[in-house]
Amino acid sequence: MPAPFFARFTVSGITLRRRHLFHLLFDQRTRSARRVEAFCGLMALLSVIVVFFESALMTRHAPAPPHPGLWLGIEIAFTLFFTLEYLLRLVLSPKPARYAFSFWGILDLATLLPLYVYWLWPEIAVSYLFIWRAMRAVRALRILKLLRFMPSLRLVGEAVSNARHQLILFYAFIAIVMVVAGALMYGIEGGENGFDSLGASVYWAVVTVTTVGYGDLTPHTAAGRVVASLLILIGYSVIAIPTGILSSQMTENLQRRRQARRCIHCRTADHKLDAIYCHHCGAALPRLKR
Amino acid sequence: MPAPFFARFTVSGITLRRRHLFHLLFDQRTRSARRVEAFCGLMALLSVIVVFFESALMTRHAPAPPHPGLWLGIEIAFTLFFTLEYLLRLVLSPKPARYAFSFWGILDLATLLPLYVYWLWPEIAVSYLFIWRAMRAVRALRILKLLRFMPSLRLVGEAVSNARHQLILFYAFIAIVMVVAGALMYGIEGGENGFDSLGASVYWAVVTVTTVGYGDLTPHTAAGRVVASLLILIGYSVIAIPTGILSSQMTENLQRRRQARRCIHCRTADHKLDAIYCHHCGAALPRLKR
Amino acid sequence: MPAPFFARFTVSGITLRRRHLFHLLFDQRTRSARRVEAFCGLMALLSVIVVFFESALMTRHAPAPPHPGLWLGIEIAFTLFFTLEYLLRLVLSPKPARYAFSFWGILDLATLLPLYVYWLWPEIAVSYLFIWRAMRAVRALRILKLLRFMPSLRLVGEAVSNARHQLILFYAFIAIVMVVAGALMYGIEGGENGFDSLGASVYWAVVTVTTVGYGDLTPHTAAGRVVASLLILIGYSVIAIPTGILSSQMTENLQRRRQARRCIHCRTADHKLDAIYCHHCGAALPRLKR
Amino acid sequence: MPAPFFARFTVSGITLRRRHLFHLLFDQRTRSARRVEAFCGLMALLSVIVVFFESALMTRHAPAPPHPGLWLGIEIAFTLFFTLEYLLRLVLSPKPARYAFSFWGILDLATLLPLYVYWLWPEIAVSYLFIWRAMRAVRALRILKLLRFMPSLRLVGEAVSNARHQLILFYAFIAIVMVVAGALMYGIEGGENGFDSLGASVYWAVVTVTTVGYGDLTPHTAAGRVVASLLILIGYSVIAIPTGILSSQMTENLQRRRQARRCIHCRTADHKLDAIYCHHCGAALPRLKR
Known about the structure:
The structure is a homotetramer. The first copy, chain A, is an all-alpha fold. In chain A, 68% of the residues lie in helices and 0% in strands. Chain A has two domains: 5-149, Four Helix Bundle (Hemerythrin (Met), subunit A) (Up-down Bundle); 154-260, Orthogonal Bundle (Helix Hairpins). Chain A has helices at 3-7, 13-25, 31-57, 68-92, 96-100, 103-120, 122-127, 129-137, 144-147, 153-162, 164-189, 198-209, 222-238, 240-260. The longest helix of chain A is centred in the first third of the chain and has 27 residues, at 31-57. Chain A is flat, with a radius of gyration of 27 Å. The two termini of chain A are 22 Å apart. Residues 1-9 of chain A have low confidence and may be disordered. Chains in contact: A-B, A-C, A-D, B-C, B-D, C-D. Chains A and B meet through helix 3, helix 8, helix 10, helix 12 and helix 14 of A and helix 11, helix 12, helix 13 and helix 14 of B. Chains A, B, C, D: It comes from Siccibacter colletis. Chains A, B, C, D: Pfam families: Ion_trans. Chains A, B, C, D: It is a multi-pass membrane protein.
C-alpha cells in the first residue's frame, strides 16, 4: 500500500484524510474496502428481497400491499444508505468525473433514483407502479460488482477472450439464420397465424432456434411446419459449436497452466494443479495463481 | 476389518455382539452390509412402484382406488420393514445420535412417517390425500444411498469439486441476470399479461433462460418481446460455460490418471487407461483405481 | 474369404450353392452383400416415404386417401419384396434359428406383418387405420441396419462404453430426481391443475428436467412454481455432466490414437491423424484405422 | 498481386481496364475489394432494417404502412444500387457464366427480384404482400458473404470436416428415431389429438427430440405420454454426442497448432498460442496463422 506514503507529501491535510478514507473504504486492494464492498452488496440484496416481498403481498383484489407506510419507510432507509455511499464514493474518488461516468458509477446513481422519482413525480409511482417497482429490483445488478473480484473469473474470461473471433462469427451466423427464417415464416404463415410483422417472426425464430419454444407462435400450415423443422434442426446442430469452442479453449488453458508449473530445483514440469511438492524431487512448488 | 479384533477386548458381551451385527449389516466395507443396503434400496423402489400403481388406479370419477384395504396392507408391511431397519441402525450404530441427525438418518426416519401420520391424524390422510401419497413417493430418495458407493462418482465429483469456484461464479451471474430480467419484464408487461408479481416474473425468467419455455407466461408487448429475445440469447450463450468448465476438468483428470500409471520396471508412463501390460517392456502394470 | 474354400469340401451340392449365395447376398464382408443390404435399405426408405404421402393425402373431411387401390398395390409390391428377402435370409443363413430370433430377424419379420394383418383381419386395418399405418412406418428401423457398418460408429461407441459406469450413475440420479420432483408437485399442485396421478407428475418432471417444456402441465400455485424453478435449475446444471463425460472420453481417445501412430523407422510418435509421412524422417506412416 | 502485371501484356485496353477494375472492386485479395464487399454488406443490412420498420408500422387495423411512396422510393434506391453492383460483377468477372450460376451469383440476382416482380405483376405484391416483403428480408443472406473471409471460420470448419462421418452417422440415427417415434405416436394418439398425419407426427417428434417443445401437439393418452417420455430421454441423451465430437476435435486442433509452433533457433515446440518469443531461448517465434 504505497498510497499513504505518497499522501504524506501532499500539501493539504484534507486531501491526506480523503485519500486515507478512499483506501480504507473503496480501494479493492485493501481488506477493509473489500468488506465495505461486500456490505454494500448485502444491502442491495436485502433491498431487492424487500421489493420481492412487497410485490408478492399485492394480490389481484388488493392492488396495493398492506402497511404502505412500512414499505415506504424501508425504501427511504435503503435510499439514504445508498445516497450516502454514492456521495462518499464521489467525494473520495481520486477522479470523481471518471467514476461518475463509469458503468459502476451510473449504476450506483440509478440505484438512488426510484425514491427521488417518487418524491418529484408521485403520480408516476402510482400510475406506473409496476415500472417504479421494477426500477427498485434492478438494484440486483449491483451484486455483479462483487463477482468482478472473484479470481476464477479469469479462467472463464480468458477462454471467452481467446475464442472471441469464433464466437462473433457464430453469433453473426445465427443472427442471419434467424432473420432469414423469420422472413420465410412471415411469407408462408402470414398474419392470421400470429406472424403479423417481421419483428414478431424474428422473435419466433429466436424462441425456436434457442430451443426455448414457448408455443405462443407456432406454424399451422404444412409448409410452415417443414421450414420450422429445418430451422429447429439447424439450431440443434449449431448449439454444439460454442460449447465445443469454449471446451477446447478451457482444456487448452488448464493444460498450459499445469505445464507452466515448473519445479525450481529439478525443472520438472507437468505437476497436478493442486500439487504442493514436486513429484520428482520433493521440493516445494511455486504457488498457483488461481 | 480391525473392528472384530478391537471388539474382542470390550467388557460387555452385548457390545461385542452389537458391533458384530453392525459390521455384518451396515458397515459398507463388508460385502454382507452392501447386500443389506441393496436389499433396502430394492424395498424402497418397490414401495414407490406400489404408490405409483395406486395413484394410477384413481380416476377423476372415483377419487379412491379400488380395494383400499389391500393398498393399506401393503403400506403397513413396508412401514414395518423400514421401522425395523431404522431401529436396528439406531441401536447398532456406534454413534446413534450422529446417525439420527445425519442426512441419511433423517431421510430414513421420514420414510416411516406417512403411516404414523395416517394413524395419528387420519383426517389429514383423507383431506390431503395428494400430500399423503407424495410423502410416500419421496422414499425414492433412499435409492440415492446406493449411488454413494459407485466408484465412478469420484471422477465426476472431483471435476465438480475442482471447478466449484467457477460454477459458483456462474450461478451467481445467472441468478442476477434472472432477477434483473424478471424485474424488467414486470415493469414492461405488467399484471394484465400474467406478470402480476416479481416472483412470477422471476419464475418466467428461470423458465426462459434455461430454455424450458412452458409458454404459460409469454411477453405480449413489442418491448417485452425484445427484452425476452435478449434474455434468451444471453441464456443460450452462457449455457456453454458450465459444459466447457466440466469438460475441461474431466479431460484434465483423465489425462492425469493416464500419466500417473507408470510401469514399475522401466518407468514408462502414459499408458492407456485399460492397459494391463506396459507398452514398452511388457511388465504387468499396477491396477487402475476406478 | 475362406468360406467358399471350406464349402468345397461339403458333401451336398445344395449346401455348397446355399453357402455361395449366402456369401454373395448377405455376408457383410463381401462387396456384393453390402450392395444388397444398401438396396434393401433403400426399399425400406421408399416404402416409408410412400406411407407418408398416403397419410398426407388423407384430410379431415376424407378419412381415406384417393385411389385406395393404387396404395394397396404398392403395399403388396413392397411386402412381396420384403417376404422374398426374409425367406432368402432364413433359408441361406448358416444358422436359421439364430437369425430368426435375433433382433434384426424379428425386425425383418415385423416388416412383413402389416399386409398379412390386413388380409387376415381386414376389420382391424379399417377400424384401427392409424395403428395399421404406424406399423408400416416403423419399417424405418430397418435403415438402422446400414448404420451398423459405418466405421465412425466405433469412436462414439468406444467413448460411450468407456463412460458407461458414469452414464448409468447419471441416469439413476436423474431418474430419482424426476420421481421425487414429480411426487412433490403431485402433493403441492394436486389434481385440479392437471397433476392428477403420480404418473402424470413424473411425465411433467421428465418434460421439465430435459428442458422440453411443452406447457400442457404447468405449476399454478406459488409453492409449485418454486419447486419447479428448483427442479429446472437442477436439470440445467446436470445437463453439463454427460456432455462433459463424453467430451473428455472422446478427447482422450483422439489423443491416444494420434500417439499410437508411431513411425516404423525413427519411432517418432504424435503424428497428425491425417498425416501420411513421418514429420521427422519422412518415411511413410502406417495407415490409420478409422 | 501479380494480376496488374499480367494485365499489362493483354492486347485490348478495355480488357486491361476491366481486369484492373475487377481487382480493385471484387478481388478479395486486395484491400479495396474487401472494403467494397463490406459496403455492399452494409447496404444489404440497411435494406433489411428498412423492411423490418415498414412491417412494424403496419398494424392490424391499417394493413398498409403510412407514406407508401416513401417506402417504395427507398426500395427503388436499394434495388438500383444492387442492380448496379450485380451488373458490374457480371461484366468485370473474368468468368461471367461461372459467377452467374454460382451460389453467390444466384443470391445477388435474387436480391434484385422483389422490385421487378412488383413492376411486372403488381397484383402479386398487393395480394401476397407478406410473401413480397419476405423476399426483401431474405437479403440478409448476403451478409453471409462477409463471414466467408473471417479466418476463425477455418478452425470451426476443420473440426466439422474432420468429424463429418460421425456427424452424418448421428443425424441418420436421429432421423430414424424421429420417424419411428412419429409413427408410434400416430398409431397411439390418432387424429383426435392433433396427430392427424404422419407428417404432423414427425413434426412433433422433431420439436420434442430437439427439446424445443412448443406444446401445440402433446400426448393426451397414458401410452402416448410413456412413449413421449422415452423419446425425450433418448433425445436428452444423444444431445451430448455432437457436442462431445466437436469438443474433442477442436481440442485436438488447438493442441496440434500449439505443438506445430516450433522455435527456429532452439527447436523447442509447445509454445502458447499467443506467445511472441520462444520460452526457451527468447528468439522471435514465427507468426501464428489464425
